[in-house]
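Appendix B. One record, verbatim.
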Amino acid sequence: MKQKLVEFIENNSLNFNTSGSGLNSACVIISGYALYLRIESTEVIKEAIGEVFPKSIGNFEKELDRVFEYAQNNNYGNYWKTTEAGLIYKF
């Protein structure tokens, strides 16, 4: 699963070395995709982000934890089953 996340991050140019709305957007996207893959915690996601950004300067972990819980409670994984998701993102 981690490798799928790494490829997704790279193929869709997600950036976790940012702050504000850019970081929030990246965390929402990766959280929804991870839920689609049936990943149920942020640990695998954090490992994948760390593999793509080994010298991460952002504080993405706190934002990811916050967003992932919200995404989980609101079924964000379902979006990735839609035609729209397949047209916008490479996965």
